[in-house]
Amino acid sequence: MIWRVRRVLTGHDSQDKSTFIADGLAPNVKEMASMPGLALTDLWETTGAPADNDGHADAATRPVRLEPPQNGTILRIVEFPPDAAWRQNADAREAFKSIGAGHAPDKKSADPMMHRTSTVDYIIVLKGEIHAIMEQGETLLRAGDILVQRGTNHSWSVRGNEPCIVAAVLVNAKPLSFSRKKKPAKKAKKKK
Questions:
Q1: Which residue blocks in 7-144 are alpha helix, DSSP H?
Q2: What gap in Å lies between CA 89 and CA 165, rounded to an integer?
Q3: What is the Cα–Cα distance from 78 to 163, expressed in whole angstroms?
Q4: pLDDT digits (tens, 9 = 90+) for 137-162
Q5: Would you tell me how many other CB atoms lie within 10 Å of the CB of residue 115?
């Protein structure tokens, strides 16, 4: 069962006094059809910096997508199921496509979840345990731990029997300046 999040939004009334404009379960939830149990709950999005706090429009009312808009942010809760529940029969590439991120997976990796985004992600583990996996190494994160993911090729693994719940703030970032593989310089042709 997907963990549901209470979301409380503030705003201003017609006399410009601060007030609560919404209080209830976050409505924008996407469970990955091709990866059952993996669910994204988008709580808020900004579309630029500085952010715009005018109005009462719900900034999370839009299709769930992996990355924030240019110069924007996303506040999200992610529920990761135990690996045993999905890793053997999931279609990770289809899951990435379903959230507008068909470009993100590392097609050369044996890990179907290995991917890269042009973001800085502040990941806060709320419940459970999860392994953060890099191309070179991995580390176990537990409730209360925080990971700052900086545009790295990365994956996730829940090796226990309980889901892991994380809060994530995704901040749009410039693409990395290096290329994955440097092409060798062309040799100059010798004149005869």
A1: 92-98
A2: 22
A3: 10
A4: 999 999 999 999 999 999 999 999 99
A5: 21
Q: Would you give the distance in Å from CA 12 to the centre of its chain?
A: 30
Q: Which residue has the tokens 């910096």?
A: 49
Mode of pairing for the β-strands spanning 39-46 and 29-31 = antiparallel
**First-residue to last-residue Cα distance in the chain:** 74
C-alpha 181/C-alpha 174 separation (Å) is 19
The answer to whether 102 and 96 have CB atoms below 8 angstroms apart is yes
Return the structure tokens found at 94. 């289809």
CA distance linking residue 137 with residue 117, whole number of Å:
19
Q: Is the pTM of this model over 0.85?
A: yes
What is the rounded distance in angstroms from the CA atom of residue 11 to the CA atom of residue 56? 7
Length of the chain: 192
